[in-house]
């Protein structure tokens, strides 16, 4: 179907304005709180997400709803991967959580992990108890560790140590275990360790550190 420049301009204006009239037979579009999010600036949205006034899921859901409403008219988005977008928003929300009750889920995300056998794994220790390791060999150095908070109310510490994936030495077994002496004798690369802290709360409410 052909469209004149004026008709195209009218269609774009209808998609961009929160209160619009598509035709004489269609009522003006209401502006719900969710729809309003689509017209906020990125700086405002980021600040409100950090303050826990909004979640990344809220913002993404509002934009996906707006796309669903307007895209059939303007065809601006050819391929929409809504599930991936919501999954990314969920990970962003989890990354902001630093406090919460037992069972709170959060994510530790590392980028730039090595690819060699002496640099491609990181070992996680939760309150001095070994949990396991994550390998970056097949993820181009990008590692996400999904954690669920446990323990009594108070601060709990999560340490990530370098390790050695495999080698030829038979004894002692130095492979796929946290290398606590990494700063003194890790072979090859000079690698860091990381320490995180999560506060388990007793009130049953997830609260972000501000």
CATH class of the largest domain: Mainly Beta
Helix content: 25-40%
Measure the end-to-end span: 53 Å
Total number of domains: 2
Number of strands: 7
Can you walk me through this structure?
The chain is α+β, with helices and mostly antiparallel strands. It folds into 2 domains: 5-95, no CATH class; 99-200, Sandwich (Immunoglobulin-like), CATH 2.60.40. 30% of the residues lie in helices and 21% in strands. It contains 6 helices and 7 strands. The chain has helices spanning 5-16, 33-36, 42-50, 56-74, 82-96, 182-185, and strands at 99-100, 105-111, 121-126, 129-135, 142-148, 154-162, 194-200. The strands form 2 sheets. The protein has a 5-stranded mixed β-sheet, with no helix packed on it. Helix 4 (56-74) packs antiparallel against helix 5. Residues 5-31 and 206-210 have low confidence and may be disordered.
